[in-house]
Design brief:
single chain, alpha/beta, 6-stranded mixed sheet, 30 helices, binds adenosine-5'-diphosphate, binds magnesium ion, EC 2.7.1.1, hexokinase, kinase
Length: 947
């Protein structure tokens, strides 16, 4: 109480105390300053520079090998030899040597400085008798640099007493490498340059859990953290993370800390070698704490609150009170004695009360440093939490600080204030042991690991990356197969069947009436009624279940069931009394013999009803109607889903003359000139051709595009091998039947939803086997077929799209990066995969590679189609619309974009618009029926028998 009674001391203590609200404000300002440093527009003027370090990964424990580190320190050069064993970095072996820097070198020529460093390296290596194999070197250079690569960094300006000529503005990595070469140490390779802060972060990562923030509070102060690369606008990289060196010592140089500063701080600043600069550092760094206390004591003595009766002139001398002494004085047990000792050493004669007050002042100064440091750290944590869109951030923070290691008060305040200011984050502070040296070795090792991994990943994925030439060749091959498929004689040998559909016109808007539609072979079986009127199309539909027993039973039972469903639907819709024309969407490969005559070539999608293959499905339906005594059935058209898609989009856009499906499978149809359709009699007009392009390549023409992964997928599909066809007599003509026991097509396996997930799964397994993913840990669950679903590709590829253009163009993409990343990790966790952030990024790269290839191959196929149509019509330019359906196309965040881009590239003379179909199967079937009822009977005769 006696202490408290002195108002001058009270006032001083109050001035040195930053209340919580003020700390909150400081945190807010730090956040703002950080954002300013990250933004491309404001980076140059920012006080908190937020320098990119090009360090994009933290250690994962697999790093191994010998590494060399050179650290340039204030008064010495330290060289280290670090051996990592790949054991999770439990026990790195370290040898080091310290070389004192001659004083004249720090202010001499730049060349002399680097020659000296290189000589240290040579001596060190000679001393340990190092082998001559290639030695990667990490260079710790604790000055502000403008870094453009991990091994390229221009010195911005010297500090810390250095002022060598001819170095500012130069690449210091280059300078060191040249000096090393001059020493004929050609096997030593400078691979990374880093700041001391980064080193701290890296060593604290060594335990296994990544450490993503580092705090240095020494003579100066600085920090770094793993930022989302996308937010570091100074670098092009937008995926993954990058360590950013905040250079936060200069925080406040624009005056933002003026309400925190005391008159003592102003005096410290004025007497320093850089007045007005490094304001934050001067509040926190240990170089200044003694000085702040000295000025506080001087002021209090002048106010007669201290040392009454002593001469205090000694306190006017700079640096008479060392920070070390301040730290001893704050100690609970020894502090008072230390205060007395320190003051008496200055020639003062302190009373007991003086010692007490001095101790209070010292504590206030150290506490304030810890609290301000906490405000800065809280800003970093909140920034990370926000930019990763987490509700809660759990993170390790490496701390390199004598203050933190040695002083409970500093440690406790730092910890508790950080918790108060960033309550949404749980930060574990880890003291670093020789952060700089070993950390530098880690950075170097991680760099090497990443470079080696990158080479291996690229080698593995290279076959999946198609060149433009590859795609042009696919386009040419598709064109050739199309011609073969259309030719009367060559049809038998074509892998693209080019099946006639007897649909000879697209809607023209004059269609009217009420129609029934059936949709069999999509995801659900449905019955619909479709009313086509002047003001648009209205539909009502009902989904019916087809029990597995019926799918795999007899054909009679299947078609009886279908008729029962139709009758049920007509009853419910009150349509029993009407005879409505019916369009039948039947999404299985059929040889069509007329608009209402379609011979089933093979069942797919789990159907295997007996007695149907080789039969006309309309006939089977009519027979069932008769059995069920349903007399009001008028089947006018059988429609493939591709055709339905084209027709339904054609209703809205008369230019729509192509249909495309990219769902479970893939297929396309388009309007071909009758004179080119060798398999159907008649030369007039056009007919829609169902390409059945999924089978493209079944004759082996795509084999060089097939990768080992595709072959694995192929082998694992039931009935692997080529799709073959056999001729079978049907009715009056002859149809081509897919031979039983053979799998669907090659092209489809590279493109469609049924396979993309499987391709990715096989690649992931290969990456794990090569220790490039999930630290090479075995992934038993990933061994299961189809466990990696194609819809995962969509989710995973959304990660990193953040706020980019894609969000604007793809309305399906919602949410943000943080959310997407969590979804990715949730997916991988479900597969019992322990994914680091880098793992997630690599998995995404695999997905992107596979989906990009699919989209590009699809584009090559379409390019063949549109170019053929353009040539058919003798046009210099063709404008055409593609109606598209299929969940892969609709849901994948980039598929359509890549498809369209590649198509523009491959078919520059065609302007192709894409229109997503809505319920192509239902609406499309009705429209085929409507178009058929609109005009005359469709042109064309039954097909001729192929030779
Ligand atoms: P179908 O082709 O049987 O008519 P769809 O067009 O709905 O059916 O396609 C279903 C297929 O789309 C699924 O088998 C799956 O492979 C794929 N798929 C489903 N969801 C997604 C998604 N979100 N992103 C990409 N592909 C998906
Ligand atoms: Mg479908």
């Amino acid at each position: 109480p006696a202490l408290m009674s002195c108002p001058q001391v009270q006032r001083a203590l109050l001035a040195l105390t930053v209340p919580l609200e003020m700390l909150q404000a400081v945190k807010g300002r730090m956040l703002q300053a950080m954002r300013k440093g990250l933004s491309r527009q404001t980076h140059a003027q920012a006080n908190v520079r937020m320098l990119p370090t090009y360090i994009c990964s933290t250690p994962d424990g697999t790093e191994k090998g010998d590494l060399l580190v050179v650290e340039l320190c204030q008064s010495h050069v330290r060289t280290l030899w670090v051996t990592l064993l790949g054991d999770g970095n439990q026990s790195p072996q370290v040898m080091y040597k310290i070389f004192d820097t001659p004083g004249d070198i720090m202010k001499g020529k730049g060349e002399a400085l680097f020659d000296f460093i290189a000589q240290c390296v040579r001596q060190f290596l000679a001393g340990i008798g190092s082998p001559q194999h290639r030695l990667p070197l990490g260079f710790v250079f604790p000055f502000s640099c403008r870094q453009t690569r991990l091994d390229k960094a221009e010195l911005i300006s010297w500090s810390k007493g250095f002022s060598c000529s001819d170095v500012e503005g130069k690449d210091v990595v280059q300078l060191l490498q040249s000096a090393i070469n001059k020493q004929e140490l050609y096997h030593v390779d400078v691979v990374a340059l880093m700041n001391d802060t980064v080193g701290t972060m890296m060593t604290c990562s060594m335990g296994g859990e990544p450490c993503e923030v580092a705090l240095v509070v020494d003579t100066g102060t600085n920090s770094c953290f793993m930022a989302e690369a996308q937010q570091v606008e100074m670098v092009e990289e937008t995926s993954g993370r990058m360590c950013v060196n905040t250079e936060w010592g200069c925080f406040g140089d624009d005056g933002t800390l003026s309400d925190v500063l005391t008159p003592y701080d102003q005096r410290v600043d004025q007497e320093s070698s850089s007045p007005g600069e490094k304001r934050f550092e001067k509040l926190v760094g240990s170089l200044y704490l003694g000085e702040i206390v000295r000025h506080a004591l001087t002021a209090l003595a002048a106010e007669k609150a201290l040392f009454i009766g002593s001469s205090v002139a000694v306190l006017r001398t700079k640096d008479v009170l060392k920070t070390q002494q301040v730290l001893e004085i704050i100690d609970n047990e020894e502090g008072m004695a230390k205060a007395r000792g320190a003051l008496e050493a200055l020639g003062l004669r302190p009373s007991e009360r003086d010692c007490c007050r001095v101790q209070q002042i010292c504590r206030a100064v150290v506490s304030r440093a810890a609290a301000l440091c906490a405000a800065g750290l809280a800003a970093i944590l909140s920034h990370m939490c926000q930019s990763r869109e987490l509700e809660r951030l759990v993170v390790n923070v490496g701390v390199d600080s004598e203050l933190y290691r040695g002083h409970t008060r500093f440690r406790e305040i730092l910890q508790s204030v950080t918790g108060l200011l960033a309550p949404e984050c749980t930060a574990t502070l880890l003291p670093s042991v020789d952060g700089t040296g070993q950390g530098a070795a880690m950075v170097t090792a991680v760099t090497l690991r990443l470079a080696a991994q990158r080479r291996e990943v690229d080698r593995l994925l290279a076959p999946l990356r198609l060149s433009r030439t590859d795609l042009e060749r696919v386009q040419v091959l598709m064109r050739r197969e199309m011609e073969l498929g259309l030719g009367r004689e060559s049809n038998a040998n074509a892998s693209v069947r080019m099946l006639p559909t007897y649909v000879c016109g697209t809607p023209d808007g004059t269609e009217r009436g009420e129609f029934l539609a059936l949709d069999l072979g999509g995801t659900n079986f449905r019955v619909l009624v479709v009313r086509v009127a002047q003001d648009g199309i209205r539909m009502a539909s009902e989904i019916y279940v087809i029990p597995t027993a019926i799918m795999q039973g007899t054909g009679e039972a299947l078609f009886d069931h279908i008729i029962e469903c139709i009758m049920d639907f007509q009853l419910k819709q009150d349509l029993m009394e009407q005879v409505l024309p019916l369009g039948f969407t039947f999404s299985f490969p059929c040889q069509q013999l007329g608009l209402d005559k379609a011979v089933l070539l093979s069942w797919t999608k789990g159907f295997s009803a007996s007695g149907c293959v080789g039969q006309d499905v309309v006939h089977l339906l009519r027979e069932a109607a008769q059995r069920k005594q349903h007399l009001g059935l008028k089947v006018v058209a059988v429609v493939n889903d591709t055709v339905g898609t084209m027709m339904s989009c054609g209703y809205d856009d008369p230019k729509c003359e192509i249909g495309l499906i990219v769902g479970t499978g893939t297929n396309a149809c388009y309007m071909e000139e009758m004179q080119n359709v060798g398999t159907v009699e008649g030369e007039q007009g056009r007919m829609c051709i169902n390409m059945e392009w999924g089978a493209f390549g079944d004759n082996g023409c795509l084999d060089d595009i097939f990768t080992d992964f595709d072959r694995l997928v192929d082998e694992k599909t039931i009935n692997a091998g080529k799709q073959r066809w056999a001729r079978a007599p049907v009715g009056g003509g002859c149809a081509w039947l897919r031979l039983p026991g053979l799998c669907p097509g090659r092209f489809e396996k590279l493109i469609s939803g049924m396979y993309l997930g499987e391709i990715v799964r096989h690649i992931l397994l290969a990456l794990v086997k090569k220790q490039l993913l999930f630290r090479g840990k075995p992934c038993p669950k990933l061994q299961n077929k189809d466990i990696f679903q194609t819809k995962f590709l969509s989710t995973i590829e959304m990660m990193g799209m953040g706020m980019g253009m894609a969000v604007l163009t793809v309305p399906l993409v919602r949410g943000s990066d943080g959310l997407a990343l969590r979804q990715v990790q949730a997916i991988l966790q479900d597969l019992e995969l322990q994914a680091s952030f880098e793992d997630s990024v690599l998995v995404r790269e695999v997905c992107q590679t596979v989906s990009l290839r699919a989209a590009q191959l699809c584009a090559a196929g379409l390019a063949a189609v549109v170019e053929k149509m353009r040539e058919n019509r003798g046009l210099a330019r063709l404008a055409v619309t593609v109606g598209v359906d299929g969940t892969l196309y609709k849901m994948h965040p980039r598929f359509s974009q890549h498809l369209q881009q590649m198509l523009r590239d491959l078919a520059p003379n065609c302007t192709v618009t894409f229109l997503q179909s809505e319920d192509g199967s239902g609406k499309g079937a009705a429209l085929v029926a409507a178009v058929a009822c609109r005009g005359a009977e469709p042109r064309g005769q039954p097909p001729l028998s192929p030779q």
